[in-house]
Amino acid sequence: MSARRLRVGLVCPYRWDVPGGVQYHVRDLADTLRGLGHHVEVLTPAEREESLTDPWLTFAGRTVPVPYNGSMASVQFGPVSAARVRRWLRDGHFDVVHVHDPAPPSIGLLVCMIATGPIVATFHAASVRSKWLAAWGPVVRPWLEKISGRIAVSDFARRLQVEHLGGDAVIIPNGVHVPAFATGPALAGVARDTDAPTVGFLGRYDEPRKGLPVLLQAMRTVVREHPGARLLIAGRGDPDALRAAIGEDLRPSVTLLGELSEADKGAFLRSVDVYCAPNLLGESFGVVLIEAMAAGAPIVASDLDAFARVLEDGAAGVLVRRGDSAALARALSEVLADPGRRAALSAAGREAAAAYDWQVVARRVLAVYETVVDAGAGRVTAADDEQVAAVTGSPGTPDGVLPSLLRRVRR
């Protein structure tokens, strides 16, 4: 790879002021690329422009939610959004623009419609079948064909875009700042390898797919076999509803920590004797598993394909049949009872996590940038006014490609 310093424009289609995996990915990639000496700017929506306090963030406007692929997409369209995109593209003088999740009717797709020059896209969505995309994909494919380099964060994301959007993609996983999780203090009041072993769970505990009820049932057996064992639950959700689900019998053994800061999340993962991921479905990768491995936490997780890949088919963590609370209880009890096995899992996990460090991942992304820049013709710029109007419509009128597409989405 050459030593040139690139001007990179990153496009995040989701609100920057709302926590989310893609937002964190874009933030961390931008930080790492700047640390490597590259100039990076980010175009992103937010609820309020004032919330974007970093000078490298550009406000793309507010979003309108519409149903997309089983969830809600952040939609922006029309002359105002187009003007912001065009100005950002022209002022940025970027060598390459990197759009995240460009297929939904969002600011990312709008950038693909308006930009000319080297474009890279990362596909994060994980569904392998989508009736929505089966209908939507052929409509947006002409603009996605402008993408010079395609990245998917997992094999599942790659399969989605190959099936519905055409072309192929190189798999480059999500990154983690491994050193930030590897060292630091433990969480106050929690320590590993004590007479009161701890199991950790992190995530939205009011989402059924996260599998917390399965873990709660398993913990009843764990507590019987390991008196004093505790379950620490961190994340967002309704604490009153969770306390009701825990029940009187298990309540003394469960501690609710609420939502944690990034620093406290690392301390939490460095503190538990076992990290448990009992998820049932809908996971494309498993960043939290990488974070836990980097922190040295032995892992017991459900046997989702995405988790099995991260845990190297059981070499870097214990895999249990998803939804099987009895099997989960056995696995947790066995790992808690065996310090030698915990140490071996911890060592294997740390070694596996090293491949996901942002310093490694960002250089792989840079290799894609270098390829498309070398193959391209000059820097990124924007289409002219007439071409932009054809895409977005004129002020006060419903004409234009993108408005007509959105009318189809809302039907």
Topology, number of strands: 17
Rounded to the nearest angstrom, the radius of gyration is 23 Å
Largest sheet: 7 strands, parallel
pLDDT averaged over residues: 87
Q: How are the strands of the biggest sheet laid out side by side? A: 3-2-1-6-8-9-10
Topology-level CATH name of the largest domain: Rossmann fold
Which percent bin holds the helix content?
A: 40-55%
- Second CATH tier, the architecture of the largest domain: 3-Layer(aba) Sandwich
CATH superfamily of the largest domain: Glycogen Phosphorylase B
CATH class of the largest domain: Alpha Beta
Can you tell me the residue ranges where pLDDT is under 50 for at least 5 consecutive residues? Answer: none
| Backbone structural class | alpha/beta
Describe this entry's structure for a reader:
It is a single chain. Helix 7 (212-225) crosses helix 12 (325-336) and helix 10 packs across helix 13. The chain has 16 helices and 17 strands. Helices cover 43% and strands 17% of the residues. The longest helix is centred in the last third of the chain and has 18 residues, at 358-375. It has 411 residues and is an alpha/beta fold. The chain has two domains: 7-175 and 357-410, Glycogen Phosphorylase B (Rossmann fold), CATH 3.40.50.2000; 178-354, Rossmann fold (3-Layer(aba) Sandwich). The chain is elongated, with a radius of gyration of 23 Å. The model has no long low-confidence stretch (mean pLDDT 87).
